[in-house]
Specification:
heterodimer; A: mainly alpha; 2 domains; 20 helices; B: alpha/beta; Rossmann fold; 4-stranded antiparallel β-sheet; disordered C terminus
């Protein structure tokens, strides 16, 4: 037992800051929801309207929980519980892989396994560690709700519901780590299981049966296939049912037991799903820096583009719902009106969703440029630049693929918007709005592309941190500037806020020329400075 | 004979530290030139400047009479490079990484000659090209760069501690490849701290210390600068001072008798002068050992090992004698 204690101590020490961030972040999410509901949906009448609208257009339930009534506390949980559970699930799945397969992959597990700790003590310590993290999360989340004056029992059920999902995904992570050869593979498997469970739960709710007053929905059987569905059916503050959480417990124990069973019969470094063998020869496309960058980036570009497609589809298909909510809740109406510069609410909807598309496109672009820094720090850039490849041409490849990535996201979003219009039979002019907004957001994303490239050329070590911070700040300013009533010039510092929009009478180009000017100047400057720049090694 | 690499008074500063402090290096065409020094002496910094990956703070460097920073791309068409610590792309297979690097250097996609050469090297180095990059050990990552370098002909090979992580069998394969490219007329700059490797492969050696070249020449030339050790069985008058034993042998140093062996050193160009004296006394068990590269090296670096290490050596040597 003392070896398990030592291993547990080492895990706690290694994770202390990371877990503080996960658990604290989840608690902050709960606090934000409490505040947001009080502010935006302060009266019961508001909340009844929203729930009725949700029942009328169930697509929205893909992104929310299970309606259990219009009381303040139950309504708050309808909005936020799936995301609290999702935080717990991500935290637990990554935690499980980090202390099992990743240790094994990096050779640390071999050192430990050669001591009296043996084969299963590290796994035991990881389970205890993950259990403790989820317990802390449950206590903190419950304390947040109780502290805001919500009923104590419901607060506890809320915390436990999130943590119960966390424990299931602790098990998922542990089993994935047994199955896959690499921590990357195990984490991908965990994330896929998580996303599929999340969507299955939302679909099940959307297909559920609303009550007569439209304030409550009974999940369909599909929801009961997902841990998220079990947590939501605990219905904190409404029913405070504990037995769906027992299902989570049973599955968590079963998965953990399975992981122990697999660990007992498996060689160190062995896996049940072998990594696919790579190609013997490179395909013809892999013969230039451009080919390499595309090869490195294509997987994540596809992911961002799928996000763009879904966001675009929602932009036009959700319009009807928002119309309904927006006309009844002044705060929401104000927000859309501010964003669409006096266009219709549906047009405002397209603008706000395409702001998100712009952020996704910026993420895809920034991620591609940060790969240049990763290549440099990792040492692979040195080998490419020691071949007949100029520094400028090398950076150019990253810029070009980054631009292509942003284009793919925007194009997918426009396609999604068009599909949304077709599916809902909405006003066809929305497709045109989406095309204008999508093209404009591409220009905004390109600004982030060249800004990140400039950081990479001037201060390589800051590339990754600064690149993402720029996107985050632009997102906050662009999305919430109008809501918080910030001055226009502050909001307009964000590229995603000054892109062209379609208005009732034509296209307002807004800051398009500024954006294009910034892209051209930044791009030329970055490439020009790259000519003079040395390779900056390591860390 | 043309000069391929020439640096003079090369200086590279990183902040306050001077990684290179007036480095003069000359490598002639067709040579295998050993670039010898411990870690941190400035070998890799020199190589990065020669490849145009870093710029010299001052001084001159030229490769094929061109400027390594300004003419980098044109020069790299003629150069093959193997770094000391090879990184590979985690999601590319070894075979893909080799093809990619080779194509950057001009191998065509369907070039039968290149493919045959790659197949030969993959076989010789016993390399599994189907694994993904993250699964390779240090030695296997090194093989990726070695195979990519040798599969496409180059005029100059710049190799930075290329055999680190390779087992002795693979080192043998490496030496064979060096012999092959040298026979084809290529020039090789081989940075290393493995003395036996340099001793076997190199025509000339430059020893670098603290950012400057402290010794440069062919191995025989360098040997002349040091003393040869001579030892034989001390049969008569074997006292520790060895006065009788060494009588009549001139110009010798460090004479001593230990464990029944008489030892002394003599300047390498004066070995012939002591032979008559040795012949006259019918010595048995005579050994004349030219200085190894290790001794050359230690002559320049011996003081760094410090007094502590020296006394520890003496203590263990004394223990061994007992």
């Amino acid at each position: 037992m003392s070896t398990v204690g030592a291993l547990l101590g080492q895990r706690l020490r290694r994770d202390r800051w990371q877990l503080v961030l996960w658990v604290g972040g989840t608690a902050l999410l709960a606090i934000a929801a409490i505040g947001g509901v009080a502010q935006s949906y302060g009266t019961e009448a508001d909340r009844r309207e929203v729930l009725a609208a949700v029942a009328a257009n169930p697509v929205i339930m893909l992104f929310r929980g299970l309606p259990s009534g219009a009381e303040l506390d139950a309504f708050t949980l309808f909005l936020i519980l799936p995301f609290l559970a999702m935080m717990a699930a991500f935290m637990s799945s990554f935690l499980a892989v980090r202390h099992t397969r990743m240790d094994e992959e990096l050779g640390r597990a071999e050192l430990v396994a050669a001591t009296p700790a043996g084969r299963t003590a590290p796994l035991t310590a990881t389970v205890l560690h993950g259990f403790g993290a989820n317990l802390a999360l449950a206590v903190l989340v419950a304390a947040c709700f109780a502290g805001a004056g919500y009923a104590p029992l419901g607060s506890i059920v809320s915390g436990l519901a999130a943590a119960a999902v966390g424990l299931v995904f602790l098990g998922v992570g542990l089993v994935a780590a047994q199955l896959m050869r690499t921590s990357r593979g195990a984490n991908s498997l965990g994330v896929w299981v998580l996303l599929v469970s999340f969507v299955v739960c939302g679909l099940g709710n959307a297909l559920g049966t609303p009550s007569a007053d439209l304030q409550r929905i009974e999940s369909s059987w599909l929801t009961w296939l997902s841990p998220f569905g079990w947590a939501e059916n605990a219905r904190p503050f409404a029913d405070d049912a504990w037995w769906p959480l027992v299902l989570c417990g049973i599955v968590a124990v079963a998965l953990t037991g399975l992981a122990f069973g697999l660990q007992r019969v498996r060689d160190l470094d062995g896996s049940f799903i072998a990594e696919r063998a790579g190609r013997l020869d490179a395909p013809a496309s892999l013969g230039s820096p451009l080919g390499l960058v595309w090869r490195l980036a294509r997987g994540s570009v596809v992911g961002w583009a799928i996000g763009g497609l879904l966001t675009g589809a929602l932009a036009t298909s959700l319009g009807a719902v928002i119309d309904e909510i927006g006309t009844k809740i002044p705060a929401v109406e104000e927000l859309f009106a501010a964003l669409s510069k006096g266009g219709s609410l549906e047009q405002g909807m397209v603008v706000i969703f395409f702001t998100i598309v712009g952020v996704l496109a910026a993420c895809a672009a920034v991620q591609t440029v940060t790969r240049a820094r990763q290549e440099e720090a990792h040492g692979t850039a040195e080998q490419v630049l020691a071949a007949p490849v100029g520094r400028v041409r090398w950076l150019w490849a990253f810029l070009l693929v980054g631009l292509g990535a942003a284009f793919a996201v925007c194009a997918a979003a426009v396609l999604g918007a068009w599909l949304g219009v077709q599916a809902k039979g909405a006003d066809a002019s929305l497709s045109w709005d989406a095309l204008v907004a999508g093209a404009g957001q591409l220009a905004a994303a390109a600004v982030f592309l060249v800004l990140t490239a400039l950081v990479f050329v001037l201060a390589p070590r800051l590339t990754i941190a600064l690149g993402w911070v720029l996107v985050l700040v632009a997102l906050l300013l662009g999305m919430f500037g109008p809501l918080f009533g910030l001055p226009d010039w502050v909001t307009n510092l964000s590229p995603v806020a000054v892109t062209p929009v379609a208005t009732a009478d034509g296209v307002d180009v807004k800051g398009l020329w500024w954006l294009l000017g910034a892209v051209a100047a930044g791009g030329v400057l970055a490439l020009g400075l790259m000519r003079r720049r040395e390779l900056a090694a390591g860390d | 004979m043309t000069t391929v690499i020439r640096t003079s008074d090369l200086v590279k500063r990183y902040g306050r530290t001077r990684a290179l402090d007036g480095l003069d290096l000359q490598v002639d065409a067709g040579q295998v030139h050993g670039f010898l020094g411990p870690n941190g002496a400035g070998k890799s910094t020199t190589i990065r400047i020669l490849l145009g990956l870093a710029r010299a703070s001052s001084g001159v460097a030229s490769v094929f009479d061109a400027h390594p920073w300004r003419d980098a791309v044109a020069l790299h068409r003629r150069i093959a490079y193997v770094p000391g610590d090879v990184s590979v792309w985690p999601n590319l297979s070894g075979g893909e990484a080799i093809d990619f690097l080779a194509r950057l250097r001009g191998a065509a996609h369907r070039d039968a000659g290149y493919r045959a050469e790659k197949a030969r090297l993959v076989d010789a180095f016993q390399f599994d090209p189907r694994k993904k990059g993250r699964a390779y050990s240090k030695g296997n990552r090194q093989k990726v760069a070695l195979i990519a370098a040798f599969a496409v002909p180059a005029e100059l090979y710049i190799l930075d501690e290329p055999t680190s992580g390779l087992d002795p069998l693979m080192e043998l394969v490496f030496r064979r490849e060096i012999a092959r490219v040298r026979a084809a007329g290529a020039t090789v700059l081989l940075s290393s701290h493995i003395l036996s490797e340099v001793e076997q492969l190199c025509d000339r050696v430059s020893i670098i210390r603290a950012g400057r070249v402290v010794e440069s020449g062919t191995l025989p030339e360098l040997r002349h600068l040091t003393r040869t050790e001579v030892s034989f069985d001390a049969t008569d008058g074997a006292d520790a001072s060895g006065g009788a034993v060494f009588a009549g042998i001139t110009d010798i140093h460090d004479a001593a008798v230990t464990d029944g062996r008489a030892r002394f050193t003599v300047d390498s160009d004066r070995v012939a002068g002591i032979l008559p004296a040795l012949a006259g006394r019918h010595v048995t068990g005579l050994r004349i050992e030219p200085p190894s590269l290790e001794e050359l090296f230690l002559r320049h670096y011996g003081d760094e090992i410090g007094a502590d290490a020296a006394s520890a050596d003496e203590a263990s040597a004394a223990g061994a004698r007992r």
